[in-house]
Amino acid sequence: MKKIITREIKHKKEKRNKIIIGLILVSLMILSTAGYAFFSGSKSETAEKKVEYNGIEFILEESGLWSFEIQNFQFLTQYNPEETENISVPIFLNINDYANKPLFFAGEDTTARQEIARTFQKFVSRMQDACVVNYEELSACKEDLPIKNCSQDNIIFIKDSEFIETKQEENCVLISAPYTEQTRAADAFLFKILGIKNF
Questions:
Q1: What percent of the chain shows pLDDT beyond 90?
Q2: Which pLDDT belongs to residue 4?
Q3: How far is residue 55 from each of residues 22, 74, 135, 150, 164, measured CA to CA in Å?
Q4: Nearest partner of 185 among 172, 195, 174, judged by Cα
């Protein structure tokens, strides 16, 4: 047999249920607003981090890469020029020396090499691995690759080394650095050939 509920008791239960549901909804609204403010605030802080270097604005994207523009070309790098200032790049080439020509890589495929390839893909006709015949440090070649030389071909070689050093022999560029510093050294090289860095 069903228990008989008076109107007064029924009214109190309904009122209590409405208050509970109201409190739950208000709590959800407050928590979602606070969560949105917290998470969107941290994203906008990252996205709005900017560095100006030689008149070029570098913006830190949500991806963690620095975005900048030169002559309507958009570039992305892991480091900004301020983070590479202590790396000397005595290279006399610029991006025009690579334009519409093949670019050859010697050595291991590393994140530093991928960093350079991401920038060069806009300018070179193609990129490919190669063996280098006339550059002492690059002459060893383990694979069946085309043989290239520094006097005729644009070649970039990134190798493990105890110290950071960048040097050029004809059209060959050698970037030597400890593995953890190779991408930073590669970015210093990119800033130099793009005309952002003067040293």
A1: 58
A2: 66
A3: 55, 15, 37, 34, 27
A4: 174
State the chain's mean pLDDT as an integer. 86
CA–CA separation, 21 and 66 (whole Å) = 47
**Over residues 6-14, mean pLDDT:** 76
Contact assessment for residue 164 and residue 179, using Cβ atoms and an 8 Å cutoff: no
Q: Which two tokens stand for residue 119?
A: 């920038």
* pTM as predicted: 0.73
DSSP labels, 121-182: TTT-SEEEE-EESS-GGG----S---EE-TTTSEEEEEEE-SS-EEEEETTEEEEEE-GGGH
The domain locations on the chain are 1-46, 50-193
Phi then psi dihedrals of residue 30, to 5 deg: -65, -45
Distance CA 40, CA 18 (A): 32
